[in-house]
Amino acid sequence: MEKLYFREFQIVDLNSIFENTNENKELKYLLENKIITLLNDKEGIFTFVGMIALRNKVIIVFPKYKKILKGNKEKNFENEKYITLLFEVLEKYSRNSLNITYLNEKSHLSDEKIFSLFSLYKRLVEDYIEYGLYEREYETQKLCGDGEIDWEITVNELEGLVSKNVVYLNYYTYEEEDEKENYIKNIQKYLLTKAVEYFKKLRFIKSLQIELDFFMEEKINNIEDSIQKIDMELMNVFSERKIELLKLLKSILEEEKDFFMEGIVLYGTRSFYNVWEVVCQEVFGNDKSYRRKIPKPKWIEYESNTITEVATLIPDITYSRRDKFYILDAKYYNIDFDDNGQLMNGAPGVSDIGKQFLYENSLEKTLGHKDIYNAFIYPSQEMNSEIVGTIKFDIFEGKEIKVIRLNSEKIYRAYLNNTILEIEKILI
Fold first, then answer.
1. What is the spatial distance between Cα 359 and Cα 192, in angstroms, rounded to a whole number?
2. What are phi and psi for residue 391, nearest 5 degrees?
3. Is 399:266 a contact under the CB 8 Å cutoff?
4. Would the pTM of this model clear 0.70, i.e. be above it?
5. Has residue 300 got a pLDDT over 80?
6. What is the model's pLDDT at position 281?
7. β-strands 57-62, 49-53: how paired?
8. H-only helix segments in 301-428
9. Which of 203-217, 273-287, 301-315 is predicted with the least confidence, judged by mean pLDDT?
10. How large is the angle between the packed helices 408-416 and 272-284, nearest 10 degrees?
11. pLDDT at 8 exceeding the cut of 90
12. Which helix (H) or strand (E) holds 13?
């Protein structure tokens, strides 16, 4: 299968990827779901980071800072190595995002959420391996069975032998029986078969391989009808495992209803900046309690003198270590300087800069005159993590924001290994 490499926001000739672009169903699907944005009749950009597996080719879209290596086998190996690392990061991010609340309240994709079929299918396979197929149990009464005696039916329906006490030679018992076939099991079989097909598309990426030999001929004619049946089943089950499985099945069906096209597998995100922010929060640490210490703007109504507090500034990352306070803002930017040291592109605007200084002012007043480390941090493929510049703003006299370029591989590996890094120690 042909493999193509691109970067997010890279301008590409669509004719080099898709045949008959005016009528191509795959291209239409990717445009509708904002994976590709058209620039003109011939060109477009990928607004997505991850993998797009089509019928006859696989498209890998790197983050915008990653340069694609071309040429020999060694360079291709480096590309593959970075892909594996990146997809491990996406998988962890996706897995952590898919909690019970998400399954319950958010069963479709959004600009903020990762394309999550991989994690949903993975969870489905794991459930099947541990518990097997879904069984519906129902209670029935059986004459002289092995279950608990149903005394109400026994007394009402059967005659007892009378001596000093009433003795029943026969009796009815509660019996739990498995329903031999049910619609929930059929939905599960159908989606497990789809999962196997899905993972076959990912076999070239070792970190995403899941081995499962499963094929059933069950079909789902109407997804909406299947979702309604799941909702009805949810009203009648109390097992925590079954409830979670039912929500999982519903989430997958919702995903397929809104974003599924036969022959296409998507794995990635339209919002990689969210991934980068979460990665940095976990790698450097983030104490959210400091958010409560930032003053809130107050609205005062003159006539009644009523005071209303509204939402305030929320920094990305705040924490304290060894009498120093850190305010970090994770920026998914390409920040470059020319040979003369002039800023070329990717600069945070005055709004971002102003907010970062306001964070410092607010927390400085709250914490006292504590040593504050204020920085923008952005990802790079460069081997060294280093401070590449500072930002000063005359109205915030005596303060500065450091601009720090981070080696993305090192940060991602720390994220995967649950390692906390100290930003000053990783800088050259």
1. 49
2. -120, 130
3. no
4. yes
5. yes
6. 94
7. antiparallel
8. 350-367, 408-416
9. 203-217
10. 70
11. yes
12. strand 11-13
